[in-house]
Amino acid sequence: MINPVIRPRRLRTTPALRRLASEIRLHPSELVLPMFVREGTGEATPIPSMPGVVQHTIDSARRAVTDAAASGIGGVMLFGVPAVRDAVGSGATDPDGILNAATRALVAEVGDALVVQTDLCLDEFTDHGHCGVLAADGSVDNDSTLERYCEMALVQAASGSQLLGLSGMMDGQVSAVRQALDQNGYVNTAVLAYSAKYASAFYGPFRDAVESTLEGDRRSYQLDPANRREGVREALLDIEEGADIVMVKPAGSYLDVLADVAAVSDIPVWAYQVSGEYAMIEAAAAHGWIDRRRAVEESVLSIRRAGADAVLTYWAVELATWLNERQAR
Ligand code: PBG
């Protein structure tokens, strides 16, 4: 007779045992919804490569953020889609620019029901599509970009953003923005550092979402997908520079980096499940090739399991709704 002494299957025998033995569980409060708000009036516009995600107008965003708050998610991350772009991204620092106007409107709409956060980067606002301003030779100029980021930070803070998402990958951006905020009385405006942001193909649909066309690529400032240690180094630097939260992005293909960062960070670690990760699951599900709901839940659960304390995901509200239904049963 073969009789194994150790039987790990024991704890998997019933739904109740499995629930009790589960190491982590998802909760709406740790989900953040990225939202696109475009300049102009009228209705929200669908984004073809991200089925179910739209470019909002300020009006439609108001309604969406109210629904988001009702679902119990932790926050929204706002991206602006301006009507006009230029070399230095002037729209980013215009107090009436789309991102800043949307921030004021949404903060007024939801108050403290969730955390209104803003993307602090120039790529949505520049005509060349880079995350910074260009030097005469066409390269992205780190230090003059930092000056623009500091200006953006002050306008965003004044607009009511509570958490600034520094996604530009310029060296020294966290300390520069932190100092600018502190010197201007915004000591409680927090900084979310996109520390380990990789030069990824998975941002493809996002470019549609913000209607940005990029000249060249971002490999001179975003991380090489081959580099794991460098992701940890960037996170540690941002912690030293005064970040309140560090982030790894994309999420699903970078769970090793996420786990490494989570192991050494003494501040919260977040992850961004990006547009391409969203599009892949939606596309496969639309073909009937995978079970959409299970794939969505598993993908976000895996990001949490790898070490993320919170997840930016385009499914935030829908996932929260599923979690709330389960709670109610
Ligand atoms: C930069 C920014 C990008 C994304 C978020 N912030 C684009 C990029 O770096 O190319 C991508 C998010 C996504 O793909 O969902 N402002």
Automatic annotation (TrEMBL):
| Gene Ontology molecular function terms on file | porphobilinogen synthase activity; zinc ion binding
Top-rank taxon = Bacteria
Give the pathway: Porphyrin-containing compound metabolism; protoporphyrin-IX biosynthesis; coproporphyrinogen-III from 5-aminolevulinate: step 1/4
Q: What residues bind Mg(2+), as annotated? A: 234
Gene Ontology, cellular component aspect: cytosol
Set out the biological process GO terms recorded for this chain's protein.
protoporphyrinogen IX biosynthetic process
- List of residues binding 5-aminolevulinate 2: 275, 314
Give the UniProt keywords, A-Z: Heme biosynthesis, Lyase, Magnesium, Metal-binding, Porphyrin biosynthesis
> Which reaction is recorded as catalysed by this protein?
2 5-aminolevulinate = porphobilinogen + 2 H2O + H(+)
Name the active site residues. Answer: 197, 249
* UniProt binding sites for 5-aminolevulinate 1: 207, 218
Q: What InterPro entries is this protein classified in?
A: ALAD, ALAD_AS, Aldolase_TIM
Asked if the Swiss-Prot or TrEMBL record annotates the protein with the keyword Disulfide bond, the reply is no
- Enzymatic class: lyase
Which E.C. number(s) belong to this protein? Answer: 4.2.1.24
Pfam assignment, any one:
ALAD
Family the entry assigns: Belongs to the ALAD family.
Its biological purpose: Catalyzes an early step in the biosynthesis of tetrapyrroles. Binds two molecules of 5-aminolevulinate per subunit, each at a distinct site, and catalyzes their condensation to form porphobilinogen.
Q: Mind telling me which NCBIfam families this protein's record contains?
A: PRK09283.1 (NF006762)
What PANTHER family does the record point to? DELTA-AMINOLEVULINIC ACID DEHYDRATASE
Can you state the subunit structure given in the record?
A: Homooctamer.
Return the protein name: Delta-aminolevulinic acid dehydratase
Q: Which organism is it from?
A: Cryobacterium cryoconiti
Q: Which gene encodes it?
A: hemB
